[in-house]
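User: I'm writing a tutorial on reading structure tokens. Could you give me a worked example: one chain, its sequence, then its tokens, then a sentence or two explaining what the tokens reveal?
Assistant: Sure. Here is the example chain.
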Amino acid sequence: MADKPSFYITTPIYYVNAAPHLGTAYSTILADVQARFRRSMGYDVKFLTGLDEHGEKVAQSAAAHDMTPQAWCDSLVPAFKDLWGELEITNDDFIRTTQDRQTRAVQHLWEVLKDKGYIYKGSYDGWYCVPDETYFTETQVRHEDEENHTEGQHLCPDCHRPLERVKEESWFFKLSAFQEPLLKLYREHPEFVEPEIRRNEVVSFVEGGLNDLSISRTSFDWGIPLPFDEKHVTYVWFDALINYLTAVGYGQPGEEAAAEFAKRWPAQVHIVGKDIIRFHCVIWPAMLMAAGLPVTERVFAHGFLMVKNEETGQGEKMSKSRGNAIAPREVIDMLGVEGYRYYFMSDVTPGTDGAISFGRMEQVYNTDLANSWGNLVSRSLNMSAKYFDGKVPTVPASWAERENPLRSVADGIVDRYAAKMGEFAYHEATAEVMELVHAANHYIEDTEPWALAKDPAKHDELAAVICDLIESIRITAHLLMPFMPETSAEALRRISCEGEVSTDDLAGICAWGQLAGDVPVTKGDPLFPRLETSR
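And here are its predicted structure tokens:
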């Protein structure tokens, strides 16, 4: 049997200083859904997430809490791991930039770049945003902050908090040498930055010219020291980006690490928020080019989650000062974990900003999950249990070849669904699945199984109708598995198909006509009880 093709997908590594929020959970679920889908399509998936624990603001926070930076980081890790566990995240690895393997990889890359002549020692004199860990040149600040510009102070163009003036010795990366190679990358591989609107932003930025990048600090010591100049520590973003290499064996000793790297690199997808595309789509590919390594195949940048203003209908940025911030716990308490995952993946277009509200969450949950999918499962299994002694009917002869509206919708559904999933158009993929669910609910009304059950002469027709409905449930459960793994597995269990849960042949398992007859059905409680919150 041939080896499965590798699929390596990552989230950003998240700052330990902030508790996991809707945005970080959104990135992580986006990646998890793709990882689950790829496993079902026969890929050998490596799914990485983790934490970024170095940098000046981490050191400052630790000092403010009278803790060492390491102890401060250690105290914050459980918040992420616990939430990812609750949200059913299936990451294969959880990296922390304070781990020894990260130190080895970062220091190895420093040596490679030094040997190749892409770094040099100099002096940095410019502006620095501590919260965003970002450098800005005088030109950038004057251009982007005209209103707030003074000779003594600037505000960060991104977060609008005060910048610090930094003057210190630094090692620099020759980013300016990669302007043309980067533009060639964008031209020849437009899929490298998606969606298109983000690619256009990146191209415009690079066309405007690139400056060499300060990649070390001497004013504090909470970071990875340079192997050849230990009074310098690695700039936090330069350190953080390398985690994608570290997790697949880069810079690690032994043949096993080398084999892992050869198998896994380049990564297929980095999932990032749109606010960090310059790091991932400009600095990162330049670093890889400089090191002589293949560039990641694709960076998918999602938008921000905004809160819908019920008066204006417009999305607003979440903030504690406005009183409109929504915590993951609030959504879990309202929708449950599976409803949480489904709502954000089906109702928010990944490449754009999404305006969310509790009212809309309730509407999507009730319409798609309670009234449609959950209702289909309950009605169909109740009828199967009632009319066929608690079992799926014995499958009638030639049933699989029988023409019916549900088979027509199911034919080709995996191809349509997979095309949408591969493009991260999850809202369109779930719409394909819900088309089958809606068709099945209409089919119940059109065929009236309760009427067929009254006529013994129509027993075979009734059996065929119930088999059509349960086969639709079986296929739907598989297609919704990446979004709602627990309830999908439960739906399969109720029709005695639990052995199908961990498939790696989605197309094969979803082919119409594989339903097993004369096996027990379990009615069970509603998969999705209707919400009546009236927020």
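What the tokens reveal: The chain has a mean pLDDT of 92. The longest strand covers residues 119-129.
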